[in-house]
């Protein structure tokens, strides 16, 4: 290059060289979805991100799963040593001081218990164990002896006072008191949603603005995929390989689905599943087989999908319609289906 040419093009060449170096050094953000799956809370949790550099994504994923583990260490009744395990194993009636975060989760559960007139019940741990749903695999369930169910119902009706209490002590500390049989704390329909809310907060704090976190039937979403919505499928309740409905979602939204196909076993053609009706002490036979709820908080969606499932189509619909910012998609055993006008999703297949 002669002197004149260098004078003309030199600054551009230097700028280009610098820019190329900067691109390599900075590592470009990925224009694609990256997903990582871990086992947590007895289910698979998948964290997906869009458009972040590998270094940012890797760090975020570690922090997100650590946050989920923190919630599990508080709210699991399966793991020994958690506050919930401790509450369920002290002498009945003994107040146990709990961390503020657990008090927040339980307060929400007790509030939903009241609002749903008992359809939602965070005290069904003993009953869940009777049916074999307390731990793991779907086919380990068993039908309890009729006498066990009658005894449980009898005790439950005798106790006009709800046997789980959250109390603020004069010192300011929060304590939980469980009266013992028939009450056992089970946050299985709340804490997964709460964990996803906290996981999403961590995702955003880690610099990821576009992402999706799925845990079992619950999920929480933020942003988009470069302006394109996240595509979510809702499983067909009677055909594993089919999607019943699909949603295209951009921005901040949580969705939870409760179905009688998540954990179940079959006896004489009857489906025995893990969503229990405290009125009958048996798996809910409200007619509903799949309930999806969309709202801002995953914890609210998680609780509501279970509560509405137990309430049934008519009461459940009214319950959803009463609440601002809550949308639902409901399907019954006999093929009736309903979705609220604001629900983000389209039917693809009938039940
Ligand atoms: P949802 O409808 O959201 O909830 C159903 C669950 O809520 C039931 O399984 C029962 O626990 C409870 N429930 C039933 N009826 C009612 C009712 N009427 N009102 C309120 N609650 C009700 N499972 C394992 O097998 N091993 C584990 O180690 C394990 N650890 C867990 C730790 C945590 C912190 C949590 C939250 C759950 C854990 N689970 C574990 C449970 C497991 O992942 C459940 O399958 C899951 O919580 C049920 O969620 P879902 O969305 O399928 O159903
Ligand atoms: Mg749920």
Structural features, described:
The protein is α+β, with helices and mostly antiparallel strands and 351 residues long. The chain has one domain: T-fold, CATH 3.10.520.10. Helix content is 36%, strand content 26%. It has nine helices and 18 strands. It has helices at residues 3-26, 54-75, 83-89, 100-115, 125-130, 146-158, 191-205, 298-311, 313-322; strands at residues 33-40, 43-50, 96-98, 164-168, 174-178, 211-215, 218-222, 230-235, 243-249, 253-259, 264-267, 270-273, 276-277, 282-283, 288-295, 327-332, 337-339, 346-347. An eight-stranded antiparallel β-sheet has the order 1-2-6-7-10-15-16-17, with helices on one face. A three-stranded antiparallel β-sheet has the order 3-5-4, covered by helices on one side. Helix 4 runs parallel beside helix 8 (298-311). Bound molecules: flavin-adenine dinucleotide and magnesium ion.
How are the strands of the largest sheet arranged? 1-2-6-7-10-15-16-17
Instruction: Work out the radius of gyration.
Output: 24 Å
Point out poorly predicted stretches: 14-26
Alpha-beta classification: alpha+beta
Q: Approximately how much beta-strand content do the residues carry? A: 25-35%
How would you name the CATH homologous superfamily? ApbE-like domains
How many helix segments? 9
Shape: globular
* Count of DSSP strands: 18
Mean pLDDT over all positions = 91
Q: What is the CATH top level name?
A: Alpha Beta
- Termini separation: 73 Å
